[in-house]
TrEMBL record:
Name of the protein in question: DUF3817 domain-containing protein
Pfam hit, one: DUF3817
Residue intervals passing through the bilayer: 6-26, 38-59, 65-84
Subcellular location: Cell membrane
Recorded topology in the membrane: Multi-pass membrane protein
Domain DUF3817 residue range list: 2-88
Predominant location: membrane
GO CC terms in record: plasma membrane
Signal peptide stretch: none
Keywords tagged on the record: Cell membrane, Membrane, Transmembrane, Transmembrane helix
Native source organism of the sequence: Maribacter algarum
Amino acid sequence: MLNLFRITSILEGISYLSLFAVTMPLKYLADIPMPNKYAGYAHGVLFIAYILIAAIFWFQKKWSLKRGFILVIASLLPFATFYVDEKYLKPLKSGNAST
């Protein structure tokens, strides 16, 4: 479950940044809307997957409300899913963090 959450977290972050940095400028500055449509679909699926997996993981690990809130809010902020991976998920993989 941890590996799935880490991969989903990173992919969701990449899809979010690709929307802002690549496909939205293509859509609004170069009048090329198609990449934005497909990146948007991908981001939507990854966003929903991230939220569902975060909720499952939060309850499974019995983490505090604060930590659960951070997991959910991270999906709304650019680069925040990378922070969650580095701060909360990666240490679990190496066994250096408390559950």
